[in-house]
Amino acid sequence: MGNEANTFDVNGFIQGLDAIFSAHDAATKAEPYLLHALDEARRLNDDAGQLTVINELLGFYRSQGRHADNLPLVTESLELAKRMGLEGSDAWTTTLINAATAMRAAGKYDDAERLYRDALESAEKTLSPTDRRLAALHNNLSILYSETNRYEPAEQELRKALHILESSSVNAAEDVDVASTHTNLALILLNADRDDEAMKHAAEALRIYKRGHLENSAHFASALAGYAQACFHAGRLDNAVRAYRKSLAVIEECYGHNDYYTITKENLDAVEQAAAKAGVSVPADDGSDFWNDDSDQFVGDSQTAARIAGAAQEFDWRIAHEDQPMTSSAAAAKASPKQGPDVTAANAAGEAAGATTTSQATASSASATPAATAHPSISGLELAKQYWLHCGKPMIADRYPNYKGRIAAGLVGHGSECYGFDDAISQDHDFAPRFCLWLTDEDYATIGERLQHDYETLLPHEFMGFTVKTADSSTPRAQGANRREGVFSIGDFFEGITGYREAPGNDPSKAHEWLLLDEATLAAATNGKVFADPLGQFSKTRQGFKNMPDEVRIALLSRRIGMISQAGQYNFPRMIERGDGAAAWLAIDEFVKATASFVYLVNEPITVGYLPYYKWSFAALRKLSRGLATRMSDVCEQLETLLRISSAACYGGAGFGEGGKGAGPAVKQVNEIVDHICGEIVTELKRDGLTRSDETFLEWQRPYVEEHIVNPWLKSL
């Protein structure tokens, strides 16, 4: 693919790849072609060529569900773009979008959100308000919000994308990107129980494909799957089956039997079974455009509706979102129509990552649940989600139909499962099927007590082999006012954890109140998963506790570096010199806690949350450190080494250790680790513009940091 100038032929590469996709040969020919092209671009040392190929390869691997293969490519693409000096250009923006989308597809949500935020910041400087790449960014950011159960901002991002696309399109009525956005908006609206609106958007997406003669596009499969889901919610099982069948055929033709095919096949099988149980016959495809049928809403007798609900109760659905993949090179960054739909799936047990799942049609009662078996291997969050989907949601639809669009559900708060750190050992206490229901104050006053009674008495006490905890079987700390599940008003729930019904916010006069909320408390208030939140009020309140004002965060950073310096740089060596090993060891403990907190704060709570209480501090720090874009990702390992050698350093004695060298070598290693971490902290402070000093004794950095604090209540005494 080289030419006489010994450079990579980008145009020839793109044309060849287009030909493969146009011939529907991607399943067998795309990867060898892409890998050969990447080898050629590397051989020629052509950075622009490498970046072009890598971005195409990112999209292809994402379409194949090969997300682990994408992770090193994300790093390489960002490094290449920086080496080429693309930062500050539109190509840098699209490289960030591609990297973020790959991370999102891999379930690396924190990394993806940071990259999307970087892309938004870059887009403000490099893209016009009507640039279609900006629409792709909003579209893909919406998918991330959806996959993390933030449906209100997800809908807002999609509407921004739709506005940009319709404004910039030559013919919006035949624009595939407009169709993709309609499909994604339909899926979001289904989660909010706005089925009528969802059906309109899903059907419009298919009409766009028809008008534009785009039915052979791989993206058509996602639009069909989205329409099928909307039909299922509306009780149109015949159209749901037909749409899934057609979607499956398109996927098989374009991609073969990949993850998308498997997910869609499972959905089709489930819908066909539901249709059979409900007595709905589905004719063979006659080639008609069934999505133009005006009878989008199911109309029938109550017995038929009940049969459909009952037939569907046992199924959970996997949703296909369609992203707008971008390509980027030194020469150009443009939308690529050839990459397939980006499918996000939650398995029958519920993905711990919180992927978007739309549940089955409402059942008439909560009694028909999966049979109890031996305890399966399942996390607490997964168990909670299944208990909600199979038992809680149908009960609410049956007994509180006027409130099903107002009640939030999920699992947040105290308990290892809320952090995602539970294991087999965790099941010896307070581990059971459970979830929380959150109501507005007004709704709680009306139905709260009755709903709590129904939660305790109507939901099954055996589920998936686990026994529901009662007041008699729960530990005292999980009873009464400290109960961890059931029905709450939103304000009462957060007040029970934090002492505040809502976060102090950005009011400078309340800034000091943030300092009364320790990080472990904030972690408990913002952990877990939200399974449903049609009003968005619970998620908004929860997010408020993550939106720590930057001045407060800076004040805490100052406090942390003060303790890091005092405990690690000053007191540890002095206590060792005095021979007080106990005091020295306590100094190490304070240093470790302050450093772990600093790492979380410098990575910003709005993105990574807060450091949980001591029991899970290192589990959380290890998880954070595995993130691709995590700052100070090496510190966790250093802290663990520090703790491991502290015994020898503090209590080694004269004859302790190999060769009788005593504590000296361990003390030296402790001091080296402390110095190295303090050096890293200075680098991070300078990166954020919080200091102009190179001083590594951190106490002397505090005046520089606090120059950025205006509120006198936040400054150190």
UniProtKB/TrEMBL annotation:
Mark out the compositionally biased spans (Low complexity).
Answer: 344-374
Q: Which InterPro entries match?
A: DUF4037, TPR-like_helical_dom_sf, TPR_rpt
What Gene3D superfamilies does its record include? Answer: Tetratricopeptide repeat domain
Keywords (A to Z) from UniProt? Repeat, TPR repeat
DUF4037 domain: from which residue to which, for each copy?
Answer: 514-616
Region feature (Disordered): 326-374
Question: Which SMART domains does the record associate with it?
Answer: TPR (SM00028)
SUPFAM superfamilies hit by this protein: TPR-like
Q: TPR repeats at which positions?
A: 135-168
Database matches in PANTHER family: NEPHROCYSTIN-3, TETRATRICOPEPTIDE REPEAT PROTEIN (AFU_ORTHOLOGUE AFUA_6G03870)
Designated name of the protein: Tetratricopeptide tPR2 repeat protein
Q: Which organism is it from?
A: Bifidobacterium callimiconis
For this protein's source organism, the top of the classification is: Bacteria, Bacillati, Actinomycetota, Actinomycetes, Bifidobacteriales
